[in-house]
């Protein structure tokens, strides 16, 4: 993977490249960011850059044999460790070596995939993923071998949070690895990593991905139009994983629906609201949740517009939010509407009757718009 294929995170890219170019890249790295910020893609891009035969100042060449093998995750000196399960049916122990073919296919198809998605991909069902003591010993064994191609040896351990106390087996390796060895840990929750490991690595934090970077990636790599990509980027809340999930379920521009619903709420159009709820309740849980999430973001931007004079929207959405912000709605009323949207989405996600939930929400939204007492609404 190229650095240019990692969505956003320009500061982290520059930091990693700078450390390498100044000969200050540590032998133990921990790349950590919330789900969807690109920890694994960043580790893959760094590995390809380090192994590249004709690297430039900002990226690997992408053409040399090493780049070709690394892009396929098949380079002999690039090793992986990740959560697995014991598969009794196929007589496989919970070791990365036993699942490497599936892992390559999964990462190629879903570079921003989650640990949960990976475990479902290998049919873990309710089994808990794990990085075992035996896995740790194999990692040590691999890195103590000579590099096959005479250069660096790189180990990417994805989700070290799945290490229990067994992780202490790796302490000496991380602190004093063999020559020309780089260990890259990729995590989402620092607090779930053994303190003894944390003290031996340099932390590289990945902030939430900027909405503008998510939007550009959707336009460039997924051929999404500007309006739809902007909506998805706003709703993704800094996660490209969430953006890809939203992309699967958002077929049309959500703004006309939201505007129509608000017009009916503000005019107390009970018949129209009932028809709207009836239609929305037939669309399925994901479209319903996405619509509610979109409206929630519109209201959050309304608060930002009212109290700072600026928001992240443009065109029709901006005009709508500016008009909403100028109305006599109290902060408590807007807050109550956001809470109602959030709770309704939560209940729908847990298989509550969508029609009842959406109808109830509409009534509560009308009460909030009328600045009636909202403390008893939720």
* Beta-strand content: 5-15%
CATH class of the largest domain: Alpha Beta
What's the helix-strand series? HEHHEHHHEHEHEHHHHHHHHH
How many separate domains?
2
Oligomer description: single chain
Annotated CATH homologous superfamily of the largest domain? P-loop containing nucleotide triphosphate hydrolases
CATH topology of the largest domain: Rossmann fold
SS-based structural class?
alpha/beta
Given as residue ranges, the uncertain stretches (5+ residues, pLDDT < 50) are: 374-378
Helix content: 40-55%
The neighbouring-strand order within the major sheet is 2-3-4-1-5
Tell me the overall shape: elongated
Tell me what the structure shows:
53% of the residues lie in helices and 7% in strands. It is α/β, with parallel strands linked by helices. The protein folds into 2 domains: 3-207, Rossmann fold (3-Layer(aba) Sandwich), CATH 3.40.50; 251-369, Zinc Finger, Delta Prime, domain 3 (Up-down Bundle), CATH 1.20.272. The chain has a 5-stranded parallel beta sheet with strand order 2-3-4-1-5, with helices on both faces. α9 crosses α10 (226-235) and α16 packs antiparallel against α17 (354-369). The two termini are 48 Å apart. Mean pLDDT is 89; it is low at 374-378.
């Amino acid at each position: 993977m190229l650095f240019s294929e990692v969505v956003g995170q320009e500061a982290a890219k520059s930091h990693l490249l700078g450390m390498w170019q100044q000969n200050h890249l540590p032998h133990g790295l921990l790349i950590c960011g919330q789900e969807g910020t690109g920890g694994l893609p960043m580790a893959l891009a760094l590995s390809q850059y380090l192994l590249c035969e004709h690297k430039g100042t900002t990226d690997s060449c992408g053409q040399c044999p090493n780049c070709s093998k690394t892009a396929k995750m098949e380079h002999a000196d690039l090793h992986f460790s990740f959560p697995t399960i014991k598969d009794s049916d196929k007589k496989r122990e919970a070791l990365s070596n036993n699942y490497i073919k599936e892992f390559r296919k999964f990462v190629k198809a879903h570079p921003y995939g989650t640990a949960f998605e990976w475990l479902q991909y290998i049919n873990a069902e309710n089994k808990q993923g794990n990085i075992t003591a035996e896995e740790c010993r194999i990692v040590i064994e691999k890195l103590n071998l000579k590099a096959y191609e005479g250069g660096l040896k790189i180990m990417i351990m994805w989700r070290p949070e799945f290490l229990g106390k067994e992780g202490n087996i790796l302490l000496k390796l991380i602190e004093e690895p063999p020559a020309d060895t780089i260990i890259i840990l990729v995590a989402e929750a620092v607090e779930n990593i053994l303190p003894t490991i944390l003290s031996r690595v340099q932390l590289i934090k990945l902030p939430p991905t900027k909405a503008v970077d998510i939007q550009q990636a959707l336009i460039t790599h997924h051929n999404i139009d500007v309006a739809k990509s902007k909506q998805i980027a706003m709703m993704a809340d800094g996660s490209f994983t969430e953006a890809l999930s939203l992309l699967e379920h958002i077929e049309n521009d959500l703004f006309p629906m939201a505007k129509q619903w608000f017009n009916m709420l503000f005019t107390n159009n009970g018949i129209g609201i009932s028809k709207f709820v009836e239609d929305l309740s037939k669309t399925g849980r994901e479209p319903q949740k996405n619509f509610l999430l979109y409206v929630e973001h519109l209201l959050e931007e309304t608060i930002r517009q009212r109290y700072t004079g600026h928001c992240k929207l443009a065109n029709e959405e901006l005009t709508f939010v500016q008009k909403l912000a100028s109305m006599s709605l109290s902060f408590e009323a807007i807050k109550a509407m956001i809470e109602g949207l959030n709770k309704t989405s939560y209940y729908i996600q847990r298989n509550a009757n969508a029609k009842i939930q959406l109808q109830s929400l509409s009534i509560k939204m009308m009460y909030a718009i009328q600045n009636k007492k909202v403390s008893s609404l939720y």
